[in-house]
Design brief:
Helices cover about 45% and strands about 5% of the residues. By secondary structure, the chain is mainly alpha-helical. The protein has a two-stranded antiparallel sheet. The protein is elongated, with a radius of gyration of 38 Å. The two termini are about 65 Å apart.
């Protein structure tokens, strides 16, 4: 199974956070410094609206036939010249001239 993405982990963590009530901090002999603390800080919820799907023009397919013909012509020439050079190299090697 594929590993969850960062967004998936964030969503799972947001769902699993327990929501608790606020509690008051201990008094610590200072009545003027009574502070309210939260156990869990809730992340603000993002409200998503449904997005309208816009119709987009589909691009026409590109015809590559001309490029394929040029490439096949070049590959044919490379094959002919390569095989001709190999034949010449073997002929010179085994002819005793070198």
């Amino acid at each position: 199974m594929a590993r969850p993405s960062r967004a998936d982990r964030r969503r799972l963590n947001a769902r699993n956070v327990p929501i608790t009530d606020r509690t008051e901090a201990p008094n610590n002999d200072a009545p003027e410094h009574n502070v309210v603390m939260a156990d869990v800080v809730e992340a603000p919820r993002v409200v998503r609206t449904t997005r309208r799907v816009l119709a987009r023009n589909v691009a026409d397919s590109i015809n590559y036939n001309a490029e394929y013909q040029i490439i096949s012509h070049d590959l044919r020439r490379i094959t002919i010249w390569g095989s001709l050079l190999l034949v010449i190299m073997f002929a010179v090697r085994y002819s005793g001239l070198v």
